[in-house]
Amino acid sequence: GENVEQHPSTLSVQEGDSAVIKCTYSDSASNYFPWYKQELGKRPQLIIDIRSNVGEKKDQRIAVTLNKTAKHFSLHITETQPEDSAVYFCAASSKTSYDKVIFGPGTSLSVIP
Amino acid sequence: GAGVSQTPSNKVTEKGKYVELRCDPISGHTALYWYRQSLGQGPEFLIYFQGTGAADDSGLPNDRFFAVRPEGSVSTLKIQRTERGDSAVYLCASSLTSVPTEQFFGPGTRLTVL
Lengths: 113, 114
Fold this sequence. Notes:
The complex is a heterodimer. Chain A is globular. Chain A is built from no helices and eleven strands. By secondary structure, chain A is an all-beta fold. In chain A, 0% of the residues lie in helices and 58% in strands. By secondary structure, chain B is mostly beta strands. Chain B has strands at residues 5-7, 10-13, 19-24, 31-37, 44-50, 53-56, 65-68, 75-79, 88-95, 104-105, 109-113. In chain B, the strands form two sheets. In chain B, strands 2, 4, 5, 6, 9, 10 and 11 form a seven-stranded mixed β-sheet that branches. In chain B, strand 7 and strand 8 form a beta hairpin. The radius of gyration of chain B is 13 Å and the shape is globular. The A-B interface holds A 1, 4, 6, 31-32, 34, 42-46, 49, 51, 89, 91, 93, 97-106 and B 31, 33, 35, 40-45, 48, 50, 55-56, 58-59, 91, 95, 98-100, 102-103, 105-108.
């Protein structure tokens, strides 16, 4: 089955700097890659997603890139703000079971004012 | 509109007891998922419903875990003979369709087995 790995597990950046989180997946049939943000004590919320027919997607300060050949995808946050501090989860959904979304272990991002 | 809701928010039980966790998805969402999240980990897939049927229950850890969605809306996750290792936050999520799309999560039920 699908396995999703995520690095780094913790990340600390200065306010205004960029943050990059990288994920790899094992199932070459996966075709949907969402990113969720989970603030302390709250529920995960989708921040951006990408499908395998595109290589990059951007939404204001957030962008995701996908390399299908290498089976990895990355989240890029520019001009980080303290409110970006949270745990970020990448995930992958296999073509063989569209809605079985497998999550990575998470990256705890701290933005230092 | 109302989001996904889960009850109870917290549940403390003794080892060996039976518990039921309830999920109310967003109205009109046909897909419903259950996840288990342990501290410092990502959500772990348990089961996925499309309508009333369990389309994929491959994540249920053993036969002590069972889930139903009899009318295609509210779902109940049932755990028999609870063990201390079952302690975790149980998250429910729903999405509009079965096509890969945004999942909306509930606030979770924190289960503690003493």
